[in-house]
What does this fold into?
Amino acid sequence: RRYNTQHTMKSIRAIIPVGALALELIGMDSTNAFSLPPVDVISRNKNANNNNAFQLDSTTTSSDADIQSDAMFIEPLQNNAPPSTVPNGKSPDELIAIAKRFLVTSKGLGGDPDMLAPSFRFEGPVVGPLPKDDFVKAIGSVDFGTAFPNWTPQFYGFYVDPLEEGGNRVWYTAKGYGKNEGPLLPFAPEATGETVVNPPQACSLTIDHETGLITKYTIGYVTDRTVGNTGGLGGLYGILYAIGKPFPFPEAQPWKMSWQYAFFQKLGSLLSP
It folds into this structure.
């Protein structure tokens, strides 16, 4: 197939600054690079400044009711009935109650080891997977209560994942803030007096329907790195960065553009007219 060179270059120029997620569009001409909704929803707006700009029309064919009922919007599992895939399982309310009970046992930092299943594993963006014994040992080695005696944990948005086949994964968002008023051994031998403000982090607890024990725990997945003062880091790495005691390796440092990505961005600017 032959491509229009002018349109192909415009596609590349538009895509490169966006990043690697749009790579699959590179090399496509502009007429095929986008799948357009009906013309009554979106119209092509050609002007002197941008021949490929798109503009939303003020009128649409979809009513609010149609939008709300669209299959793309999936509601979390709710009510007191167990998921249809596990008829004898625990209800979403029961699962969320277990998750909250686990978090409250240690202000959301770790949790009661007796609530962990033998097959438990912990996974973060960098750390893990850790089996139960390693996780309990790691949590027990950090005296967070002494370092942050007035820490304010903030957890919200609890729901049971509607797409997990087991119907047993509780998702929630975690934030929190507090002043470092004591040593955070073994990382910070003295209090720094710095206040930590966490960014929002996506977390989850997967719970066995039969035993009520937790089989998987994930934390630290930052959803907006511009919030707070942890350098966009989640979990312990973010807290250590905020108090001025970060680990020296890249995974415990704020995100920094690689030379490869910088080159990718530069290429986009060079292709611009």
About this structure: The longest strand covers residues 169-179. The helical segments are 5-15, 64-68, 92-104, 132-140, 144-147, 235-242, 259-271. The beta strands are 42-45, 53-56, 116-123, 130-131, 152-160, 169-179, 195-197, 201-207, 214-222.
